[in-house]
Prior knowledge:
Largest sheet: 7 strands, mixed
Number of domains: 1
Helix content: 40-55%
Strand content: 15-25%
CATH topology: Lambda Exonuclease, Chain A
CATH architecture: Alpha-Beta Complex
Order of helices and strands: EHHHEEEEHEEHHHH
Shape: elongated
Radius of gyration: 21 Å
Number of helices: 8
Amino acid sequence: MYPEEDALDIPISALEHFSYCPRQCGLIHLEQTFEENLFTIRGQLAHERVDAGGDTVAAGIRTARDVPVWSERLGLRGKADLVEFRKTGPFPVEYKVGPRRGTHADLQLCAQALCLEEMLDVVVPAGAIFSHSLRRRFEVAFTVDLRAITERVIVDIRAMLNNQRLPAAPNDARCPNCSLLNACIPWVVSEPDRIRGLQGALFRPMSLPDA
């Protein structure tokens, strides 16, 4: 169980945000900032289609959608897009719009598995990321290393939320496609000298015209 003074539940979605960009995670989960762009709208539409499917049974496998999951031990809460209840145990599936880039979403999926293990007292060895753009699944094994990384990111996110401190802006190749670009303004906040200059200009007394 996480310490009492850190008793703050972490949204499972925050893990992918933090892995991709800690500042993006801070803007969303610290400052409650969220803006739409083409990618976020596509993602919402894709998840709506998944959630609208309802629970099904096919080939002896029950499939549940939009499943609430949580962990008291880790202080996590969220939802799994889809869980297949196989004979070998629960198999969570996370839906993503774009192609698979890196392992950021794997942490979110692993967190869902950790929740399911605690809730159902079972072992969840693997799950999958489904890419809408590629129309295929990428299976993810929940290895010892992935579980350790996932739990470490949870600790880092909780520290950020408890400290109420927004992470620094990266100002790199991740920024142009981020929906929070204009809220983050990485080209400004990543340059301390420029910020100090702007602050000085902001509070510079105005020159009054001669009477």
